[in-house]
Amino acid sequence: MTTARVYIARLAGLPVYDPNGDQVGRIRDAVARLRTTNRPPQVVGLVAEMTVRRRIFLPMGRFTSIDADAVVLSTGTLNLRRFEKRPNELLVLEDLLDRRVTILPEETPGVVVDLAMETNRTGEWSLVKVAVRQPSRRLTRRGQLVELEWDRVRGLIGLTDTQGTAGLLAVLEQMRPADVANALQEMSDTRRNEVAAALDDERLADVLSELPEHDQVEILAVLDQERAADILEEMDADDAADLLGELSGPDRQALLDLMEPDEAEPVRQLLKYTAGTAGSVMTSEPVILTPDATVADALARIREPQLPPAVAAQVFVARAPMATPTGRYLGMVHFQKLLREPPSEIIGGVVDSGINPLRPETPLIEVTRRMAMYDLVAMPVVDANNRLVGAVTVDDVLDHSLPPDWRDRDVPDEPGVPVPAPPHVVPPRDRTDG
Length: 434
Description:
Elements: E1 6-7, E2 15-17, E3 23-33, E4 42-50, E5 55-59, E6 63-66, E7 71-73, E8 89-91, H1 92-96, E9 100-103, E10 108-119, E11 125-133, E12 145-149, E13 153-154, H2 166-172, H3 177-186, H4 189-198, H5 201-208, H6 213-222, H7 225-234, H8 237-244, H9 249-258, H10 261-271, H11 278-281, E14 288-289, H12 295-302, H13 309-312, E15 314-318, E16 329-334, H14 335-340, H15 364-374, E17 378-382, E18 388-393, H16 394-401
Helix pairs in contact: 3-5, 5-7, 7-9, 8-10, 15-16
Pfam family, one: CBS
InterPro entries: CBS_dom, CBS_dom_sf, Mg_transptr_MgtE_intracell_dom, MgtE_N_sf, MgtE_transporter, PRC_barrel-like_sf, SH3_actinomycetes
Protein name: Mg/Co/Ni transporter MgtE (Contains CBS domain)
């Protein structure tokens, strides 16, 4: 086991590998056990986010190395029971990062920016060092960063109303939106709302799309209405429509009225469709080009980094105008077809018009059947006048085919149903260090 000092904030997001070199998850936090004496808390394990969207406990005795690039396990046998913090434990990053503390004996204030753990001769890990940033006397400079012994910092244990968000945001910034959403669900309501409010509009919009509906509504409710409208503008129109659909009629209308008209209009249109149909789950902003565009034009469009993979997998071809609802729908071109054609080729000459498009009222079960039949990641949706109004992507279908609470971290595991596990992982046992 590596015995050098380990800074815990730097562990967040590191991959976890089993002895065979297979990645089984990523580190999200460290678990420290409080002691009855004034000794520093003992670090008993790390919390890892597994590929099956659950957090589990990994005892410190199970690691062969912990370094700046990865964490390696000494065994492939893992306890898959979902991690739950015990009363005498704390999560180092969630509970201690950004806390406002007092440095002893000077009685000067500071903010926790990181914590370090070290091992003793018996292999026990403890939180021995605290990195604290002192306030600067000049507004234009950052305060001095000092590293202190645990017992020189007062205010680490106690109420969380002295905890800020800057350091935690820096850790969350390294995570994907879905992982941030999972982290928010592990926090108290107050802490979650503070962190959500501190995220920028685009980032919060991405994270909200990954949260269960009830959490989306609760976070939106603590924002002022103008900011809530800004967040909705940053969301994909279909995700914004799903969220607004959870609100009362007056609240929904108030937010739509605060949105920019060109951002609100596609959301209003999606809200008109019946739940459980193609229209209710489609995106109204697929990649659309006219038939005189070239293959080079199409490839440039699908390379745009903000496009989700399922949306960028194909180009839909229609007569002008290109904003939905378009002119007459002509067909689609998959990106693999584009890669095989000369860049100067006109896409009107390579368009596939052999697959009948969906109608907005097509039931989701029929949408799923047809996408599976043709091995498609997206299908066009047209109105009665054969105008393209949107596209249903495979992630839309999956999202609405799973149980409504599939994103909720509080849903208990179903008895008798095995949990999908990465290679070399066995079913749950009691949480021990052995």
